[in-house]
Amino acid sequence: MPLIYDFMPVSLADYPGTVACTVFLPGCNFRCPYCHNGPLVTQSPKGNVPESVLFEYLERRKSLIDGVCITGGEPTLWSDLRDFIARLKEKGLKVKLDTNGSRPDVLKELLDGGLVDYIAVDIKAPQKDYSLFTSSEEHVAGVIKSVELIKNSSVDYEFRTTVHEKILSIEDLEAIGRWLSGAKRYVLQGYRFSEGVLDVEFCGEKPCDLLFLEKAKENLQAHFGEVIIRN
After folding, report:
1. How would DSSP label each residue in 11-59?
2. What element of type H or E holds 226?
3. Which of 25, 51, 61, 108 has its CA 20 to 30 A from that of 78?
4. How far, in Å, CA of 66 to CA of 140, rounded?
5. 212, exposed or middle or buried, with CB in 10 Å at 0-12, 13-18, 19+?
6. What is the structure's pLDDT at 34?
7. Residues 6+ apart with CB under 8 A from 60
8. Which CATH architecture best describes the domain 6-230?
9. How far apart are the C-alpha atoms of 159 and 170, rounded to whole Å?
């Protein structure tokens, strides 16, 4: 089973419309400078929390917790992820998966098995500019495949982009909009500094400007069912 790095007992923000427990799995195949979960990416993939502790907690709080958000790191790197999610579903819990989209075969298996209720895919940049986040062309090809897989599925989903003005311009975001055009939901997440940021020197402590996000939203509206700012 996955090695659980940690879990947040209750979250009202990580799974839209759902009171959730958020589970963090360590390890990632991307290196995003603004990542706020740096220790999950840079440390060896070992867990701090026995799986039994999580499931005991979920049993105790079953009257409060409606779903589980699985995040990281990159959860799809874990070979036992399917079985882990199946156990959550057996308990009647809804499951949201956060992913960078680099492993479409894993996503297809979960979708085909009816094991996920909501998928959030982090879109880092226009297709041509992914080199800041990964050096693997296979990873980028995987993201492109995952986008189409999820757009054509029946599962609820969102595509989302962390916006840092040193990394993405308005034109870059418009290029992402053209790529994802027709998707039901796109989320603009303004960069915010935290102690866990992977590359503090590059990203700095200044948050993304709200006016920048609002301009991007206005320019992107035509491509999506809805565009949301989370700042």
Report:
1. ESSSSTTS-EEEEE----S---TT-S-HHHHHS-S--SB-HHHHHHHHH
2. strand 226-230
3. 61
4. 33
5. middle
6. 95
7. none
8. Alpha-Beta Barrel (3.20)
9. 17
Euclidean distance between CA atoms 52 and 166, whole angstroms: 42
* Residue from 151, 152, 146 nearest 186 by CA: 151
Q: Measured at the alpha carbon of residue 141, what is the angle toward residues 174 and 129, in degrees to the nearest 5? A: 40
pLDDT at 45: 57
Crossing angle of the two packed helices 51-60 and 81-90, in degrees rounded to 10: 20
The 3-class SS string of 164-176 reads CCCCCCHHHHHHH
Rg (CA), the chain: 17
The answer to whether residues 183 and 224 touch, using CB atoms and an 8 Å cutoff, is yes
DSSP letter, residue 202: H
Alpha carbons 220 and 170: distance in angstroms, whole number: 10
Looking at the predicted structure, is the pLDDT value of residue 192 above 60? yes
pTM above the 0.90 mark?
A: yes
Q: What percent of the chain has pLDDT over 90?
A: 86
Tokens of 161: 């982009």
Q: Which pLDDT score, from 0 to 100, does residue 95 have?
A: 98
